[in-house]
Amino acid sequence: MAVPKRRHSTTRRDKRRSHDAITLPNPVACPQCGEAKMPHRVCPSCGTYKGRQVAKAED
User: Where is this region: Disordered (predicted)?
Assistant: First the structure.
């Protein structure tokens, strides 16, 4: 198994880790009720998806 002869610099380590940040969720407004919801998911407040009622609305 290969073992590094010299340690990697902090710059090299940080460049490798530059893509590890967690992205924030991007909520969109529901076209039916206007509440914030995640895209491509059923609205939790009114229960619609793509203009159709697919789930029971939670109170």
Answer: 1-23
